Amino acid sequence: MKYILPFAVFILGMASSFAQAGRLEGQVSFITTQNVYVRFPSTEGIRAGDTLSLAESGRKCLLVQEKSSTSCVCSLLDDCSLEKGTQIVATPHNEVLREKPKGLVQDDPAAFDLVRQPAEALKEDETDPYSLQEIRARVSASAYSAFSDNRPGRHRFMSQLMVNADHLDNSGVSLDINMNYRHILDEGASVPLASNDLFRVYGLSVTYEASPTLMAVLGRSINPKFASVGPIDGLQVEKAFRNQYVGAIVGFRPDIYDFGFNPDMLEYGAYYGLATNGKIFRSQTTLGGIEQRGKTDIDRRYAYMQHSSSIGNSLYFYGSAELDLYKKIEYTTLNEPRLTNLYVSGRYRLSRDLSFTLSYDSRKRIIYYETYRSDLDRFLDDDLARQGIRARVNFRPAKNIYSGLSYSKRFRSDQQNKSDNYNGFLTLSQTPFIGGRTTLTLNRNESNYLISNIGSLRHSRTFMRERLQTDLYYRLVQSDYVNFTNTIMQHYAGADITYYLNRGLFFSLTGEFATYDGQNNYRLYARVVQRFHTKRKR
Questions:
Q1: What fold is seen in the domain 4-120?
Q2: Is the full-model pTM beyond 0.90?
């Protein structure tokens, strides 16, 4: 027995030595907005496309994009969060690992020279303000037609352009575009719009990063730290100080009728935030204030809060709130607080096979005292909070079986517009005998005026080495209206075919047949989408 302990120590020491010999240890040297840089004694045996892990937990967290002789440029995987100095582990390939003599720096001419940053070396207190150019774009065109036995046909065409061009020419300049055009054909007076041609710009902005801690955005853009404000036509500036940041916005709200530019709807504000980026706990909290005007008078003034956090890989939380601070009735101005928006959501992932989600929201009608001056009486009389609660559980009872149940409730204090919704689904990722993916969904909704039951079955499968994807579905809807004595039954059957010409270009065609009370309806939807993705190397 007296030899057992020394022998066990010897075995553990040998195992540890072999384990260390099969991996490389490094640490995060600095972090930019797009990349994470990891320094190793040597990158021999590491290749582009490899994954790097956290030394503490072993979790795969980084994807190697490029490397030099002693450093790797990586992108984050999933929701990993790192800080400078985090220990990283790489598992090299089968090349022979040779330790370099201390003090000797060897250059790798075949790779971009990471060590030749400003000042010819990456010092501990330096950061790289620019990243590699990466452009993602999506162009689509679609056509929709609906036919009926007893109604005129409806037809519309739509095209969309989305571009995210990050760090053009490897600089601090980025471009974002999101716009679409829709044309409604042969609708005439049945369309409650001034024109059948609708052009919408949802995003059109230029971002300039003067450094990793200072950025400015000009144009129409949504600030992710101020998401509920919506698009802002103007200038946004943000400056970070370690784990804190401050920002300011000045611009205009889009027009409420045509979503165009409106110089009469001025808005401005500022915000402060705090970010925590630990190994286990990560969070971001933003507090701010916004004032919006209708021409020269105050339309709305409110305070805003947004918070998101996660603990490990299991618990996630999000919350936002808006507190209105201004009220103007006739000629009387008051600064009474009014909670107009509250939303909280949490998700707990017990394991890979079981997760829970719970959310609550309370919303009041937003009152713009200048824009809707003629409707103030009606808005103030109906100042009740529309509240909602939702609970969902997703679980995987077997390897190829996924399922979930959810319940949501909408209500307000006068019991009007209340509803209860029950939903459940069961998915077979590998359907026995026929292959493909099959999903069964059941839904029941109960409200003041309607009780509906919906059952649907969908089967998806790919062919031709996943170039061709097909979907077949059937849906049965049973509706009981309070004012009707008869139960209404509706049947829907449809098919969708998508063909991928290459990795970026695909075409899809969807057809649906619906029948109700002897009436037959037909819908046809066609779409072609082209995606682009390019990334420049140094």
A1: Elongation Factor Tu (Ef-tu); domain 3 (2.40.30)
A2: no
